[in-house]
Design a protein that fits this description.
- By secondary structure, the chain is α+β, with helices and mostly antiparallel strands.
- It folds into two domains: 2-81 and 109-183 and 279-397, FAD/NAD(P)-binding domain (3-Layer(bba) Sandwich), CATH 3.50.50; 186-277, D-Amino Acid Oxidase, subunit A, domain 2 (D-Amino Acid Oxidase, Chain A, domain 2).
- The protein is built from eleven helices and 20 strands.
- It has helices spanning 14-25, 59-67, 73-78, 114-127, 172-176, 237-244, 248-258, 307-327, 341-366, 370-385, 387-397, and strands at residues 2-10, 30-34, 54-57, 80-82, 84-89, 95-99, 109-113, 131-134, 138-144, 147-152, 157-165, 181-197, 204-210, 213-219, 227-236, 266-269, 273-282, 286-287, 290-292, 298-299.
- The strands form three sheets. Strands 5, 6, 12, 13, 14, 15, 16, 17 and 20 form a nine-stranded mixed beta sheet that branches. Strands 1, 2, 8, 9, 10, 11, 18 and 19 form an eight-stranded mixed beta sheet that branches.
- The protein is globular and about 60 Å long.
- Bound molecules: flavin-adenine dinucleotide (FAD).
- Residues 10-16, 33-36, 44, 53-56, 137-138, 166-168, 172, 192, 232, 273, 275, 294-295, 302, 305-308, 311 line the site of flavin-adenine dinucleotide.
Length: 408
C-alpha cells in the first residue's frame, strides 16, 4: 500500500515531532514514520525520575514549543527553570557565572526529562490530525520522478515531495540518500544519571571542568524534600566504563568528591547510561527529495547542552524557507535541493561554529600544559569582567542572537 503526502518526517523525537507540527501548520499534508511504539518506556528510563536523558531547553526552544501549542502540563512540571549557570576550572581559580538578570530575561532555560516532552509532542501530533505510522522503520528509499518513495519494514510505503530526516545520529535516511557524515571520535564517553544531593542546587546549572572531562550537575525539581540533579559526566572511555560498573555507594562517593563535595554528600544515584562521545556533522543537509534536521545532521559534545536546541533552530529555519513554496505551485517542488539552499547555508554555518566551539573548549580544558592552564583561568576571569562579551556569549547560547526564526 502506498500513501501519498506532501512531506514525510522520519523520526518522532523532539526535533522530528516539532518539524511535523511546524510544517503542518503551513498547510502541508504531513505524515510521520517512527520506529518506536506509542507508550513504549524510554530506553533511558531511571528509578529516581522519568528519564535519565534530560534536555536543557533554551528560551528560543521553549518559545517554539509554545508557538506549536505543545501542552506543557506534563513536562514543564517535571522540569526545572534555572536562572544561573556557573562553570569553573578544577585546575585553578578561574570561574564564570552567568545569570538571567544580566541579560534581562526571567530564566536562562528549562531542564526537562526527555520522555514526558516526547510524549506531549506525540499527543500534539494526534491533536493536529497528523498521521503517525508508529512501530514502523524505514528500510529503503527511491526517487520517483520529482517525488521520493520511502519503504517501511512492514511492507508499506509513503511517497512524498520531501522526506525530512529526523531519525537521529544513526540516520538511515541520511545513509539511503548517500549523504556522507564526518565523525570525530573524542575517545570519551558521556555518562548520564540522576542523583539526590544533600544541599540545594539553587536552580543553577553547575559545570566543573576536570582535566579528565567536564562534569555537570543540572537542577531538577525537589521530590519529597530530596534535592535532585541530572548528572552528565564526560570521561575517557576506559575511565567511564570503570565508573559505570561501580556499585552505587562507591559511585556516589566518587561523584561527590569530583564535585568538591560542594553540595554535601551524594545521597542516592540512579543507574548510569553511557554513550560514546562523537562529534558528527553531515557534509550537506540536502539531497534530491531529502533534507536533514537535528541529530541526523549534527551530533555535538553534550558539554553545552545544546543538542536539542540546535535541532529546534533547524526546524525554525526550515519552516521559514518552506513557507513560500507551500503557499503556491511550488508545493510539487519541495524536494528541489535549490529550494533548500538557504536552509543549509544558514544552519550548517551556525552548527559548524557550535561544533568547533565545543571541540575547542574540550581541548582547552583537557590541556595539562601550565601555560595553557594559566591562560584559560585568566580567560574565564576576563570574560567574567567583560560585561558585553559575557552577555553576547550568553545570548548566543540561549538562541536569542541566532538568525533562526527571523521572518522569511
Ligand atoms: C543519554 C543521552 C543524554 C543526552 N543528554 C542531553 C542533554 O543533557 N542536553 C541536550 O541538549 N542533549 C542531550 N542529548 C542529545 C539530545 O537528546 C539530542 O540532541 C536530541 O534529542 C536530538 O533529537 P532528534 O529528534 O534529532 O533525535 P532523537 O532524539 O535521536 O530521535 C530520533 C527518532 O527517530 C526514530 N528513528 C530512528 N531510526 C528510525 C528509522 N529507521 N525509522 C523510523 N524511525 C526511526 C527514533 O526512534 C527516535 O524517536 C542526549 C542524548 C542521549 C542519548
Amino acid at each position: 500500500m502506498t500513501r501519498n503526502v506532501d512531506i514525510v518526517v522520519v523520526g518522532a523525537g523532539v526535533v522530528g515531532a516539532c518539524a511535523a507540527l511546524a510544517l503542518s501548520r503551513l498547510g502541508a499534508e504531513v505524515m510521520v514514520v517512527e520506529r518506536r511504539a506509542p507508550g513504549a518506556t524510554a530506553p533511558t528510563a531511571g528509578s529516581l525520575g522519568e528519564d535519565l536523558r534530560t534536555l536543557a531547553l533554551s528560551p528560543a526552544s521553549i518559545a517554539l514549543l509554545a508557538e506549536l501549542d505543545v501542552d506543557e502540563t506534563g513536562w514543564a512540571a517535571a522540569g526545572c527553570a534555572y536562572g544561573a549557570m556557573e562553570v569553573w576550572d578544577a585546575e585553578g581559580t578561574g570561574r564564570l557565572r552567568f545569570t538571567a538578570d544580566e541579560i534581562g530575561v526571567a530564566e536562562l532555560g528549562l531542564l526537562v526529562p526527555h520522555h514526558p516532552l516526547a510524549f506531549a509532542l506525540w499527543q500534539a501530533l494526534a491533536r493536529e490530525g497528523i498521521v503517525c505510522l508508529t512501530g514502523a522503520s524505514v528500510s529503503g528509499m527511491a526517487a520517483r520522478g520529482r517525488r521520493t518513495a520511502v519503504s517501511l519494514d512492514d511492507g508499506s510505503e509513503v511517497e512524498a515531495a520531501l522526506v525530512v530526516a529526523a531519525d537521529g545520529g544513526e540516520s538511515r535516511v541520511r545513509t539511503l540518500a548517500g549523504i556522507e557524515i564526518s565523525t570525530e571520535d573524542t575517545g570519551q564517553r558521556a555518562m548520564a544519571t540522576l542523583a539526590v544531593i544533600e544541599r540545594p542546587h539553587e536552580n543553577t546549572a553547575w559545570q566543573r571542568f576536570l582535566p579528565t572531562g567536564p562534569l555537570a550537575f543540572l537542577p531538577l525539581p525537589d521530590v519529597d524534600g530530596g534535592h535532585r540533579v541530572s548528572v552528565v559526566w564526560s570521561l575517557d572511555t576506559d575511565r567511564a566504563l570503570a565508573m559505570e560498573a561501580l556499585a552505587d555507594a562507591d559511585f556516589a562517593a566518587t561523584l561527590g568528591a569530583a564535585m568538591e563535595d560542594r553540595f554535601g554528600a551524594v545521597m542516592a544515584v540512579d543507574r548510569r547510561v553511557g554513550f560514546p562521545l562523537q562529534q558528527r556533522h553531515a557534509r550537506t543537509y540536502r539531497a534530491q527529495g531529502v533534507v536533514l534536521v537535528g541529530d541526523a545532521a549534527h551530533v555535538l559534545h553534550p558539554l553545552a547542552g545544546q543538542g536539542v536546541n540546535l535541532g529546534l533552530q533547524d526546524v525554525r529555519v526550515l519552516r521559514d524557507e518552506l513557507r513560500r513554496p507551500l503557499r503556491g505551485p511550488g508545493r510539487a517542488m519541495l524536494g528541489d535541493p535549490d529550494l533548500l539552499y538557504h536552509y543549509e547555508r544558514i544552519r550548517r554555518g551556525e552548527n559548524a561554529i557550535m561544533l568547533r566551539t565545543m571541540d575547542g573548549l574540550k581541548r582547552l580544558f583537557a590541556a595539562e600544559d601550565p601555560g595553557v592552564r594559566w591562560l584559560r583561568n585568566e580567560g574565564l576571569r576576563r570574560v567574567g569582567d567583560l560585561g558585553m562579551v559575557k552577555r553576547t556569549l550568553l545570548r548566543q547560547a540561549m538562541g536569542l542572537d541566532s538568525t533562526a526564526g527571523e521572518p522569511a
